[in-house]
Write a structure and sequence with these properties.
This protein is mainly α. It has helices at residues 26-52, 56-80, 85-112, 117-134, 136-140, 142-156, 163-174. The chain has two domains: 3-50, no CATH class; 55-156.
Length: 175
């Protein structure tokens, strides 16, 4: 390894912005690695807090069901490379694609607008039930079941109260 290769060897950490070349001493490399790990832990804590502040798993199941319902009727069209979408997939495929897109939107809306999760979760369940007669038996039952379960999970989700608020309520009840 030459002086020009410093910082590009196997000890380089991807995604870590380094102002200069990689340190040559083990302690300096370990300090750099600890800083990167601390940054990663902070990012994971932020992700965990964001995920727990909304009906994440219900929205994820609705997005997956929408993708499945959207991809199933279009799979034959995409394999053959046809441009005339409606001619090849028919009315059932159009409904499958439409219900799939609406389920994806409902799943994303539960993530980014958690205050209206009740409406979006009920819409997800209704769209899942509507996919049974409208789109290849609900995407071979998989998309329909994912939509129904995802809507039910999103509907049942409740935000967790902060620990300080529950402790204050417990202390008020004791006095």
């Amino acid at each position: 390894m030459t002086a020009d290769d410093v910082g590009t060897g196997p000890l380089a950490v991807p995604g870590l912005a380094v102002a200069g070349p990689a340190p040559r001493h083990r302690r300096a490399r370990m300090a750099q690695r600890r800083a990167w790990m601390a940054q990663r832990r902070a990012w994971m804590a932020q992700w965990r807090a964001w995920r727990r502040s909304r009906p994440f798993w219900g929205g994820l199941l609705m997005v997956l069901s929408g993708l499945e319902l959207f991809a199933l009727p279009l799979s034959s069209v995409l394999v053959h490379g046809a441009v005339k979408l409606v001619i090849y997939i028919g009315i059932g495929g159009v409904f499958g694609a439409l219900i799939g897109v609406l389920l994806i939107v409902a799943g994303l809306a539960t993530w980014f607008n958690a205050m209206h999760k009740t409406f979006y979760s009920i819409a997800g369940v209704v769209l899942g039930l509507a996919s049974f007669p409208a789109s290849n038996l609900g995407g071979l039952f998989i998309g329909m079941l994912l939509a129904i379960i995802g809507g039910a999970v999103a509907f049942a989700w409740t935000p967790v109260e902060p620990v300080q608020a529950t402790q204050a309520q417990g202390e008020a009840a004791l006095s």
